[in-house]
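Subject: Sanity check before I submit

Could someone independently write out the structure tokens for this chain? I want to compare against mine line by line before I put it in a report. The sequence has 277 residues.
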Amino acid sequence: MIISAVLPVVEPLVPRLRELGHEPVAWLMPRRKAGVRGPLPPWGEVTDSMAPDGINLLFAQDKWTVAPLLRGLEPDVVLCCGFPWKLPQEALDVARLGSVNQHTGKLPRHRGPIPLAWALRDGDGEFGITWHRMDAELDTGPILSQTTVPIEDDDCTIEEIGPKLTQAMLGLLPQVFERVAAGDPGDPQTEEGATWAGHFGEDYATVDWAQPARKIHDQVRAWQLTFGMSEAKGPIAELDGERVKLVRTSLTDPGGGARAVQCGDGTLWIVESEPVD
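---
Independent answer below. Compare away.
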């Protein structure tokens, strides 16, 4: 059983599960409430025709309806990957062998909703991937498998980063299933090194050109990986007396008319920006 709100994750996950000898019975998504405004994901609204072949597509209206929907399917294992709701313990206990989540952080570091963005904000140099058993709290359950993916200088959008993360995530599945099938509870997380990857605020919204070029470059691409979920809007910079939102930058000259700006320790190139209303 797959629980996810991210089509580009589910599409490669289904054939990988089948390759490993497991048959997904359904894909459960959160229902988008009527009249709720907000940006659609790049792939748009998911419809039945977009679901992988042989997969039932379910829509839950809220987190309290997840458990009854799961009970009707009697899953052996629930795999959660890219889901916005904190699920109640009742739902996590339905699957015979338990519920497992994939988190894009090296837990216990960067628990929370935007771990990729915080990896850039903190200058980590690598993205984390963790499969862990789920409990009633967010990203605190015992760890089943982990790996990392190096952060490259041109990793600026999820379209560029996503395929590498997905490949790493899928590569861990044999170990995950081996431990789950054996009844292995996983390795308990410690609080040492634990951090919270919460939504960005105004304290990170403004660009300071006195900062090093790399730090500003990381700030720009970190905001790209908030996926518009933070109430604050950034990164906002001042150029020639005009306030602009930086969309993409480069540490080397990409050509094509990119604007060179002097930072605290060198040059940063602005590849794309937009005016702030």
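---
OP: Matches mine. For the report I'm noting this point. Helices lie at 7-19, 66-73, 89-92, 115-121, 158-171, 173-181, 213-224.
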